[in-house]
Design a protein that fits this description.
single chain; alpha+beta; Immunoglobulin-like; 2 domains; 4-stranded mixed beta sheet; 3 helices; 16% helix; 32% strand; globular
């Protein structure tokens, strides 16, 4: 009986070690996805990228990640897409364990097909309840995808996305402009290709940031001091216009005025 107990313990420890070893070797899907983005195999769009145009090579994967909440009955779906690009695979991941906490819907297109995918594809998405198709969508999202063959020496055009994990370049004569990132955006966010513009600080109190010198009334306002905070820049923004790129300290300063 004593020998049988020892044998049982040994077998149990062996099985436990096997489980731990297997668990340690299990691949992490999120790490794989991040690596694909770093290597330029996958490119992602988020809520902040609504209306943008991107260029990708065939063989890449495009993922559109949009905020959603499955508990409300709403879901992201394709409203309009051409048959050549086709329908995406759609998945949903809750952001937390609490009921009603919401999450992210991912719509993925793999740019591999027996059909010729090269060209321009316009896609429209809508956030809708399946049983209320005649009602207006709660949210919409659209983008334009330009697909080119691998090795095509083409930079991103005016208004197209650049930078990001894949370090997408702009065409000659354009620069990748970042400006003020959207709320919640990470430091590795993508920019927009824009024609370079020289921005100047003007106004009686140095409160105006524009591409030409401008005159203003010499009535000083306390918020003007916020634009002189360290790190604040007068530069071209992602929409192509000149504007102030504000630091966190400058933003807090403005809210207190």
């Amino acid at each position: 009986m004593k020998f049988a107990n020892i044998l049982l313990v040994a077998v149990s420890l062996s099985l436990a070690g096997s489980v731990v070893a297997c668990g340690g070797a299990e691949p992490n899907a999120e790490d794989d996805e991040t690596m694909d983005e770093l290597q330029g195999k996958t490119f992602s769009l988020t809520d902040a990228d609504n209306g943008k145009t991107i260029t990708l090579e065939t063989g890449k994967t495009l993922k559109v990640k949009l905020s959603a909440n499955a508990t409300t009955g709403y879901a992201w779906r394709v409203k309009s897409v051409d048959r050549t690009l086709g329908q995406p695979t759609i998945s949903y991941k809750a952001s937390g364990g609490a009921v009603g906490s919401g999450g992210v819907t991912t719509l993925a297109w793999k740019l591999t097909s027996p059909l010729d995918l090269t060209g321009t594809h316009k896609v429209e998405l809508e956030y809708q309840r399946p049983w209320a198709e005649t009602a207006p969508a709660a949210k919409t999202f659209s983008f334009t995808l330009k697909v080119v063959k691998p090795g095509t020496p083409v930079g991103r055009g005016e208004g197209e996305m650049c930078g990001g994990f894949a370090n997408l370049p702009c065409a000659d004569g354009l620069k990748c402009v970042f400006g003020n990132p959207p709320s919640g955006a990470s430091a590795d966010m993508s920019g927009i290709c824009r024609a370079p513009k020289t921005c100047k600080i003007s106004g009686c109190s140095g409160e105006i940031c524009a591409d030409t010198s401008r005159v203003s009334s010499c009535i000083y306002r306390p918020e003007y001091a916020c634009y002189k905070k360290p790190g604040v820049k007068c530069e071209q923004q992602a929409d192509g216009a000149c504007g102030w790129s504000l630091t966190t300290d400058a933003k807090q300063c403005l809210t207190q005025r």
